[in-house]
Amino acid sequence: MALEAGYPEIRTVGIDGMLVSFGDRLSEPANRAALAFRAEVERESWDGVEESASSLVSCYLRFDPLYLRHADLAAKLRGLIESRDWMQAPLPGGRRLHRIPTVYGGALAPQFGEAAAAAGLSEREALDSLSGARVRVTALGFAPGQPYLGELPECWDIPRQQALTPQVQPGALVLAIRQFVLFTVQAQTGWRHVGQTAAKLVRLGEARPFLLAPGDEVTFPSVSEEVFARMQGDAEGGASWEALA
What we know:
Helix content: 10-25%
CATH topology of the largest domain: Cyclophilin
CATH class of the largest domain: Mainly Beta
Low-confidence stretches: none
Radius of gyration: 19 Å
Strand content: 25-35%
CATH superfamily of the largest domain: Cyclophilin-like
Order of helices and strands: EEHEEHEEHHEEEEEEEEHE
Strand order of the largest sheet: 6-13-10-11-8-7-14-5-15
Number of strands: 15
Structural class: alpha+beta
Number of helices: 5
Number of domains: 2
């Protein structure tokens, strides 16, 4: 799958920002390119660039315009873009594969059945599909450390709800448009609440304050409500991880 026509694209963001986009919608090649490009920007450590971050399909750079001119930074970015095929670039090093046990459906995740029906699946089929999926953290956003994960199989390209769910709890696994979001905070959402986890996603004071990072991969195996209740007393909430090569 190739990048969309007209991409990559370099845009100015205010007086001290530049944005390199690899598409206008989520796709595996565009997300891979954004993650790999941001990692390479970090390795380059250009003087005057003060911060970088990746989103679903873009890499943002904040720089000091008194030290580094827009035109000079744009030239550096163009040179880096042309240096390789970012669609085929390796993902950043240091990635992890996480296993986060999840309760699907029931009182803890009441919109699982609705989401299964929207995907054209029985609840058994939906459980097998979601608990067997291995997804990538495509970006963090909305709240600190809160991951977007995808892409799920095409049957899960279901729309957001027309109304908001007033509140989900931290650890809620919600779904729409072939993506999961795993909530780090109590909040309302327009995505369907299909699963509940006990994972501790934010670890203030630790060297790595967020459990998940862009580029990490995650599975959400199914567990019973009884197992979930026991995991709530566990320091990791039942979650585990291993290093990816």
